């Protein structure tokens, strides 16, 4: 298992965050996004992820090997205490503890920023992701059937949650 340093992301991390996100788009196991994103996209995304909506990175030997973020679940004020979760790990570092390390630190950030619940959406075939989420205490809430289209096929999406 690599020695990891988990810290708050900075603008200097955006190229690696983008590379890792695009891996998730390319391999079709982490997102319904179909087209690789560019640097302008990730700059805008990062601008929206300040203050409560934290972005963390995990480094191994000074190289960013994963990232995680708390995302706005809804613009409705009734959901201000609910965050949506994203975790992406460089495919060469999967199953090496990166996701767990990121999640543990991100959950601390969520508590400090007055979130009481984290939700996430995952594919039923993303077994690595579901294993991580279950290990971290998430429970399956249900399935959105035909929630999106990927490569011309309808895709179901599993909803999971954790009260913190």
What key phrases describe this protein's structure?
single chain; 164 residues; alpha+beta; Aminopeptidase; seven-stranded mixed β-sheet; 7 strands; 29% helix; 35% strand; globular
CATH topology of one domain: Aminopeptidase
Q: Work out the helix count.
A: 4
Uncertain segments are none
Quaternary structure: single chain
**CATH fourth-tier homologous superfamily of one domain:** Gcn5-related N-acetyltransferase (GNAT)
- Spatial order of the strands forming the largest sheet: 1-2-3-4-5-7-6
How does CATH name the architecture of one domain?
Answer: 3-Layer(aba) Sandwich
- How many runs of DSSP E, i.e. beta strands? 7
> Radius of gyration over alpha carbons?
15 Å
Structural class computed from helices and strand pairing: alpha+beta
Question: In the CATH hierarchy, what is the class of one domain?
Answer: Alpha Beta
Describe the 3D structure.
A 7-stranded mixed beta sheet has the order 1-2-3-4-5-7-6. Helix 1 crosses helix 2 (39-48). It has a domain at 5-115: Aminopeptidase (3-Layer(aba) Sandwich). The mean pLDDT is 95. It is an alpha+beta fold and 164 residues long. The chain has 4 helices and 7 strands; from the N terminus they run E-H-H-E-E-E-H-E-H-E-E. The protein has helices at 14-27, 39-48, 98-112, 127-135, and strands at 5-8, 55-60, 63-72, 82-89, 117-122, 139-150, 153-163. Helix content is 29%, strand content 35%. It is globular and about 40 Å long.
């Amino acid at each position: 298992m690599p020695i990891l340093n988990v810290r708050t992301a900075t603008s200097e991390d955006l190229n690696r965050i983008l590379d890792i996100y695009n891996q998730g788009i390319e391999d079709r196991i982490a997102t319904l996004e179909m087209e690789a994103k560019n640097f302008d996209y990730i700059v805008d995304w990062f601008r929206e992820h300040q203050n409560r909506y934290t972005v963390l990175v995990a480094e191994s030997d000074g190289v960013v090997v994963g990232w995680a973020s708390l995302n706005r679940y809804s613009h409705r004020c009734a959901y201000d205490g609910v965050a949506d979760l994203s975790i992406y790990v460089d495919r060469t570092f999967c199953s090496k503890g990166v996701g767990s390390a990121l999640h543990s630190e991100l959950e601390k950030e969520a508590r400090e920023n007055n979130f009481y619940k984290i939700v996430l959406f995952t594919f039923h075939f993303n077994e690595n992701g579901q294993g991580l989420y279950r290990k971290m205490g998430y429970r399956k809430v249900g399935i959105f059937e035909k929630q999106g289209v990927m490569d011309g096929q309808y895709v179901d999406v599993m909803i999971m949650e954790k009260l913190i």
